[in-house]
Design a protein that fits this description.
This protein has 138 residues and is an all-alpha fold. It has one domain. Helices cover 72% and strands 0% of the residues. It is built from four helices and no strands. The relative contact order is 0.16.
Length: 138
Amino acid sequence: MAAAARFKWSSFAGRWLFVFALQEAVYNPTGYHYFSWLMQPESDYVPVKVFVGVALLIVCVFVLGLALRTLTPIGVFSAVVFFSGLSWAGYSVGVRLPTTALTVMWVQAAIATALAGGISLGLFRQWISGLITPSESH
């Protein structure tokens, strides 16, 4: 019998880093991302670009599907409201992001936090409640 998985903040941090790195690989404000590479005019690497794009798409759909299945529409709405409120509160006390690039990075960090939270939610619920889900009790 395998040991039941336990929630750990370090595993949440690993999930967060993975999701954030995935977002940064797809698009980031620095210009070093998949879409920038895809739009370069050279045609030598078209099969590689297509393969990388398909691989990124598969991983993104997997992560998004996993998180959304756990979060449900109410959880997604709650995450949007939470990070919108946090942004508004920060702005009202004088926290201003000086560039658009930093604003994009803030939004990406908020999305990564929501997705990593969604992926970790089952373990977090078990950690908080101390209950084992029926699928783990065999």
